[in-house]
Amino acid sequence: MLSRAATATLTAATHGSDPAATLTATIHTAGQVATVLLIVIIAVAFYLFTCLVWPFGKCRRCKGVGKFKSPFGRAYRHCGKCDGSGLRVRVGRHVINHMRAVRGAGENSTTGRGKR
Ligand SMILES: [Zn+2]
Fold first, then answer.
1. pTM score, two decimals?
2. In this predicted model, what pLDDT tens digit does every residue of 47-92 receive, in sequence order?
3. For residue 44, how far is its CA from the centre of ligand 1 (angstroms)?
4. For residue 17, how far is its CA from the centre of ligand 1 (angstroms)?
5. List of residues 6+ apart from 19 with CB closer than 8 A
6. Does residue 76 sit in helix, strand or coil?
7. Cα–Cα distance between 95 and 60 in angstroms, integer?
């Protein structure tokens, strides 16, 4: 906290002008914005692709086990969050399912009428 404030005042003192203004000027070049945007788009596309191929992750509450063991004996109960499956649908898969649902609804209302 204290050191960060000190460096901020230090850069302001050395540069003379407003450090925030120079920072935005250096970052917001059109080419750099396009590059960052491209990287983000590729990363999101790659993540959605992995969610398409591997839609499930480990349940966070039971860590993929699906059940909780009792400290006494061999009793156990199923995890309530994943219903004992140990699986969790990944966030990207929810997005894909939503996109598919929206697209399917659109196709049914417009193009599906004549064909079927
Ligand atoms: Zn679970």
1. 0.56
2. 999 999 999 999 999 999 999 999 988 999 999 999 999 999 999 9
3. 26
4. 54
5. 8, 11, 12
6. strand
7. 19
Ligand 1 center from residue 58 Cα (angstroms): 8
Rounded to 5°, the CA angle 71-72-75 comes to: 90
Q: Look up tokens 């699906």; give the residue.
A: 66
How many other CB atoms sit within 10 Å of the CB of residue 86?
19
Instruction: Tokens for 41, please give them.
Output: 């788009």
pLDDT in tens, 5-14: 554 444 444 5
Question: Residue 20: is it exposed, middle or buried by C-beta count within 10 angstroms (0-12/13-18/19+)?
Answer: exposed
Return the structure tokens found at 61. Answer: 């509450």
